[in-house]
Amino acid sequence: MTTDASETTWLPAIRKANGPLYIAIADAIAADIAEGRLSEGARLPPQRALASALGIDFTTVSRAYNEARHRGLVEGRVGQGTYVKAKRMKGLQPAADGLVDMSMNLPPLFDDAALTMRLWSDIASLQGEHGLDLLMRYQAPGGTLHNRAVGANWLQPRLGEIPAERVLICAGAQSALLAAISSLAKPGDVIAAETIAYPGLRALAAHLGIDIVGVPIDKNGIVPEQLEAICKSTKLRALYCNPTLHNPTTATLPLERRKAIVAIARTHGVAIIEDDAYGALPIAAPPPLAALAPDLVYHIAGLAKCLSPALRIAYLVVPDRQSCVRIEGAIRATSGMAPPFNAAIATRWIEDGTAREVLGAIRQEVTIRQTMVSRLLPRDVVQTDQEGFHVWLHLPLPWTRGDFSGRLRASGISVVASDAFALDLAPEAVRLGLGAARTHEELQRSLMTIADLLQQSPAASSLVV
């Protein structure tokens, strides 16, 4: 009998799996393609031969091959067998012009084919675990109790043990912020925030008819004495803050200031909304405000910056059952529920350890990119944190933020001027996102362009004729 030269003697190394055996075999096919053990065009063993070798029934192998076909990993050829179709990841490709849109604050792409394939395999495996129920049923506004418990487990290293009943699943951090603010304040009310703050907060407050007063900050974040003065002169419904790797300044609020802010808020009866978008990135950071005052703080932990911007899932930890009921009502009124499919993906990635691996890969890539910043940009104008993936660039005189961002835009680089963040007078600064560059070479060229422009004068670089 003649054997196809492309046929392999492949046997799957099956990981311990919570789901069916056929899913585990399909996962093994995906992993071996990603890691190069199964090359494009290779012929898989005949189904009966693989079933015999593994000591399992033929039907299980048949279902595994069908699952792999559904995932786009293999293809069946009539009368010939089953062949690997998926291509191994080739590495990230640069943009056509070699430059990037640095206005978006995205987690950096990591070049890990096996981990990438695992992400997609986990998504595909949801079919075997949930069937049509996941796709054809509504869920409660705050998510299923199981998804909430997994979210509590994900947050445990930062917040300690928290009951699942205090965790609500939201359709991204913006949805969580909308639910929290709309449940705490009504049109005409006043909330406070850092005087340089997340633009999404400004847009949301304007939409709800809520006023924002800016709390002055320094290089370490909110100045407690300034917050105290505002609390004494203004009736605040809430304080919004981003205490860890602040967007855009990258400041992380020291522990003593965190304690002081909690004490001030408690004295004046002000709820705290803690946006912990970047809180998972540092290996060690001061405890979140929600860990210091769980009865006072609404803690928002999105997955966009530490796992996937496309997932649109955030965990909102609330102080008590009463606030939980109120927030569930806000979720029902604004978004209905978080997408159950997205919530299931997040749960799967967290439970099987994939989320931790992705976080580790992002951290490694951040270190590489921050090293490039240290090497290429002047230190006296850079404000950043080695564990974050954005930079707050203080512009030297006579540059203005408008001139500088305009010159960069003409060079094909987009950055965000401070006007987008300022509640009061905007400083001469811009934010650079390090994560949008697809390759290190692409980021290096962009940083070199920025460094070169900083050495020029606005008049010398003018394009006006």
UniProtKB/TrEMBL annotation:
The keyword Transferase applies. Keywords: Aminotransferase, DNA-binding, Pyridoxal phosphate, Transcription, Transcription regulation, Transferase. GO terms for molecular function: DNA binding; DNA-binding transcription factor activity; pyridoxal phosphate binding; transaminase activity. Pfam families: Aminotran_1_2, GntR. This is Aminotransferase class I/II-fold pyridoxal phosphate-dependent enzyme. In the C-terminal section; belongs to the class-I pyridoxal-phosphate-dependent aminotransferase family. Signal peptide: none annotated. InterPro entries: Aminotransferase_I/II_large, HTH_trans_reg/aminotransferase, PyrdxlP-dep_Trfase, PyrdxlP-dep_Trfase_major, Tscrpt_reg_HTH_GntR, WH-like_DNA-bd_sf, WH_DNA-bd_sf. SUPFAM superfamilies: PLP-dependent transferases (SSF53383), Winged helix' DNA-binding domain (SSF46785). The lineage of its organism: Bacteria, Pseudomonadati, Pseudomonadota, Alphaproteobacteria, Hyphomicrobiales. Residues 19-87 form the HTH gntR-type domain.
